[in-house]
Specification:
Length: 208
């Protein structure tokens, strides 16, 4: 969308939050309170090929808080409240906390290197009815990720299918997810410097 049309679309989306059942766009289209009583599908896009996003200068106070919370955890971000939401996609978008007890499908695509394991596990901890999970990490260079071993495991008793892709050391987060009914597809890439991440991933998978 051109900037003028996109601004109009964003404003309309924010004003109509209580009437929306489907929504797609960057986080800037979310209403300030982020209450969506009848929303069933949400597709949040990120920068680059995934979709438009405002420049840093156009971010409002709430959006700047989201960017900050992405780098340091999700504790200060405004949560999304969507009681009947069934499908949620973060398509290269900054992660935000959410309350979606009806969620069935969660896609975390091109998760940025700064996302810490505790933030990802905190998101998953609220999705007890989840049936499908897709988790892909960005291949962008970043410092080694923090080990997931010290984090409390997440229980996903209804998960049926999981698809994981990205650097092996980040995919080892699967070792902290308990999903006894799930079939798992993994596309892992060992880092150029070490294969320790691949070893950690293999250990996580063998423990299933």
């Amino acid at each position: 969308l051109k900037r003028g049309r996109f601004d109009c679309y964003s404003e309309l989306a924010r004003r109509s939050a209580h009437r929306l059942q489907w929504l797609r766009g960057p986080a800037s289209i979310l209403s300030a309170r982020r209450n969506y009583p009848i929303l069933r599908a949400l597709h949040l896009t990120g920068p680059g090929p995934h979709g438009p996003v405002p420049s840093q200068g156009r971010l409002n106070k709430h959006e700047r808080n989201i960017v900050h919370s992405h780098e340091h955890g999700l504790g200060h971000a405004i949560p999304l409240n969507a009681p009947v939401l069934e499908r949620l996609i973060f398509d290269g978008a900054t992660l935000i906390p959410f309350c979606a007890p009806s969620l069935r499908v969660l896609v975390l695509h091109s998760v940025r290197p700064g996302a810490c394991p505790s933030s990802l596990l905190a998101l998953l901890r609220t999705t007890l009815r989840l049936e499908e999970l897709e988790l892909t990490f960005s291949l962008a260079h970043s410092p080694p990720s923090t080990s997931c071993v010290q984090h409390i495991a997440v229980e996903l008793p209804q998960l049926k299918a999981a698809r994981l892709a990205g650097p092996a050391e980040r995919l080892s987060i699967w070792g902290r997810i308990r999903a006894p009914l799930a079939s798992v597809q993994v596309h892992a890439f060992a880092g150029a410097e070490t294969t320790a991440g691949l070893d950690a991933l293999l250990q996580a998978l063998s423990a299933r």
